[in-house]
Amino acid sequence: MGAAGSSRQFPVMTTPTIEFDNLATADLRVDAVYKGGRKGNAGDDPIAKLLPVGNQGGLRHKGSVTPFAVQMVVLYSSGHDTDWPDFLDTHTGRFVDFGDNKTPGNELHATPRKGNQILKSVFDRARDPEADVPPFFLFEKTGDGRDVRFRGLAVPGNPHLASDSDLVAIWRTTKGERFQNYRAVFTVLDVGLVPREWLNDLVAGEWNTANCPTAWFEWAIHRRYRPLEAPRTVTYRTREEQLPADDESLEILRTIHRYFADTPTAFEACAVAIWRMIELSVQDVTITQASVDGGRDAIGRHALGPKSDRVVVDFALEAKCYAIDNSVGVKEVSRLISRLFHRQYGVLVTTSYVGRQPYKEIRQDGHPVVIVSGVDIVEALHGAGMTSAAAVEAWLVREFKL
Q1: Mean pLDDT throughout 1-19?
Q2: The whole model's pTM is what?
Q3: Is the peptide bond before 227 cis (omega within 30 degrees of 0)?
Q4: In CATH, which of 3.90.1200.10, 3.40.50.960, 2.30.280.20, 3.40.50.300 is domain 17-222?
């Protein structure tokens, strides 16, 4: 311990930033920011300076697609495509990416940049333990000019998914035209730094060198997943984390709130439907009568385990259709907690967010309550193919008669 009156200086942890002029020799470090140029043209793109994959598109690659000899792939997400929302779960290392057939007019694999063809080939090869698979490098837009953030080294598939569920062709409708696109699931590997030497090896056509990251080697040789898992240090979410950031998603929440504004109890059925979208094994849900609900808008059962040996857990659900600037407070949360029976968990579904104090108390006191806030509702609806306020309103009118 230092002498009285002395002070210890702790280093301030900052996000590494690599300047544009240094990109060609830079390593790839998880969560580091790579600066773009400032000339105002395509040459400002930092990814093309880091890796030889070109300067355009959300899926970029080096190497031949037919015959397949792809050496590396970059997945670049702008974070602003609400119709096709790529998503990285930093807690588990799971990354969801959508292919490049995002508008009607093309067959699933006949896209100009051959992105979906690459996905199909890569996931097929991932199921063959003898086949080589190129590494995927994930980048996302920071919102500051052309700057990008490196999010990790990824491989196709996920240890918690069946092999026929990691790449799925889904249908969407735009302006009355139906078309398909891929929904692909990747695993970000436990690799904090990808050395420049290995990137050079890949460009030269070699991956199995002394510079190869260990987690990548284990997957490439044994198909053994070692995900980069980063559990939250704070177990409750802030207001900003509970609400979507983009205007279209916020308008979806406003649309739901307006629809049920005159009859808020009707939102209970909608909340149940949303919970079913999130947890597919929910069953036997009953919406309780308003006068006798005892603090529970619905009760149901959740089946867990293999199909041959299910364990059923009861839950109670509380639905709060609030405006996005109106938080769920201590009173509402306490009401739900006080009504939970032994071996029962709670679900609170709200179109807004839970205030800091009640959310913190839920987590610190260990109450078994799931919070489904505005951002979770939007993500569930997106996953069900409803990516605009108009589509959500049509669903509300069709499914919930007032």
Answers
A1: 56
A2: 0.78
A3: no
A4: 2.30.280.20
